[in-house]
Amino acid sequence: MANSFAAHFSPRQFIPNSVTHRNIFRWYQRLLQYSPVTIFLKQKNRLLSESSTSQINFPYRNLKYQIKALSSKHGSKRSYHLTELIYYDTLSLAIRSRERGYTETKPRIKDWPSINIEHDELCNKLSSSKDIEILHKGTRFEGPESDIFEQFPVKETIGELEQTSIADVFPYDVSFNDLYILTIEAPVLGDSHEELMRILRASESEFQIFAVRLDLTQQLLLSSFKSSMKPSVQKNVDYKYDDLLEIAKNAKLHSNIDDLIQFFAEQGSTRVALNKAQDSLYLLEK
Fold this sequence. Notes:
Layout: H1 2-9, H2 19-34, E1 37-46, H3 50-54, H4 58-72, E2 80-84, H5 88-99, H6 112-116, H7 121-128, E3 133-136, H8 148-151, H9 154-159, H10 166-169, E4 172-184, H11 194-202, E5 208-215, H12 224-228, H13 231-235, H14 241-251, H15 255-266, E6 269-274, E7 280-285
Antiparallel strand pairs: 1-4, 1-5, 2-4, 3-4, 5-7, 6-7
């Protein structure tokens, strides 16, 4: 939780020269390079919720179990993978550096300032989706909001309380979104994803899709999306979902891919954007 909060309030502007951070960065680079479909999920949470104080998120455990069970049906073939998105500032750096031609095979980056100013709609969505808000409870606290954490330090106070009484004692709570990444891997891209869609529909009271990345360089997605886009549409970052449906129709997409796109629309990801290189298509929650 501390790392994800840090990513929100003080996002990294470069990757430190440490093995841990370099490995995280390279993992995101590999994800961008090899995952044809990346689904971003959010789950509403609170600092003093039962799942936070007990450090057991049962809805996430259940979803992860279902995704793992679905993946196991494909044997050793790479299929579906669900993981927490904690360092989304590092993912944003991986996305922006990719626009400059830096990938896992070309990792050495010196020009971080120019990378940080790269405009990318998915990065913008990631930075706004944590949605952290301080919730005041009653009138027990008076004073500047900046003083609240000094007067009621979380770590020290929790250590003195029984777990069940924490939420009752604190005069504030913090609401935020936990973020997750769900990938559909290349070996199963052309398969039916009905079971995955069923799982996500059944979980939508807890988990909402807020963004999807489609890698247009992948075999089934290919560049058919891109070649079917009119130049006027390609230049318009904020074109409509109806345009995407028309593109899908012209591109003669694989029917299972078309079903996925329809599903994402049903879930609210109806704002469409391209990255600068026009090799990734974003479906974003409005």
